[in-house]
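re: ur question from yesterday

yeah so i grabbed the chain u mentioned. its 243 aa long if i counted rite. heres the sequnce exactly as i have it in my notes:
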Amino acid sequence: MKIGIFSDVHANLPALEAVLSFLDGKVDKYICCGDIVGYGPHPNECIKKIAGIDGIMCVAGNHDWAVLGLEDISKFNEHAAAAIKWTKSVLTDESQSYLLGLDYKLAGSGFIVVHGSLTDPIDQYVRTVSDYIPSMKKQDRRILFDGHTHQPLYFRATGGVVDFGIFIPGKKLEIADGSKYLVNVGSVGQPRDGDERSACVIYDTDEMTVELYRVEYDIKSVQSDMARVGLPRYLIERLEKGE
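ran it thru and got these C-alpha cells back, copy pasting raw so excuse formatting
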C-alpha cells in the first residue's frame, strides 16, 4: 500500500490542490499532519477539501487549535497572530466542527502521526537530535510522521545512536528493521527550506520506503488572494522565497 502524507497546508488552496492532484492515482490512502489553517486566505475551502478525502487520517496542529481558542495566540508572532484573528472571523460553523473533531495523535500499522512530537504533539519543534530523543523513547512504532517545522528531514535511531538527514527528492529513505524513524514531511502551503514548491511524501508499506516530492503551484494566485483579504505583507512575500 502507498500512503500520501502531507502537512501544514495553512489555508493555501492552490498548493493543496496541486499536491492532491499530484498524489491522485499514486496512493491508496492519505495522512495530514496538521495545521490545515493559519497564514493563508482559504481556510474553509482547505478544510472542506481535506474533509472530503475518504478515510484520511488527520491530526490537529497549533494553528488549528489557535483558531478554536484552544491555543494561546500570545505564543505566536504578530504576523501569525493577525492571520489567526482573521481566520477566526471567517471560519464557518462547519469548519470549526471539523477542526474540533481532530485528535492530536493518531496511530496506524507501524506508524504514529502527530503535528509536533510525542512529548508535545501540538507545539514542539523537532529540529535536532536532542529534540527527537525524548519522542524516540516514547515511540512504540517504527515511524513517527510529523510536520510543524515546515522543513522536510528525517531522524533515524539505531541501537541508541541517532542520526539525521535532509530529504532529497528522488532519493528514497529505506526503513530498516531494528531502527526507529521520525519523518518530517515538510509543508504544503508555506515551505521554509529555501524551496518554494509544496512538499509531500509517499510511504510505501510494501517496499518500506519513504520518498519526498516537491510540487509546483500558482504562488501568484494565492498571494493575490492574501492581499485581497488584508493578510500581512510579510506572509505574502515569504511564499515565493520558501522561507
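noticed a couple things. The chain has eight helices and twelve strands. also The two ends are 33 Å apart (CA to CA).
anyway ttyl
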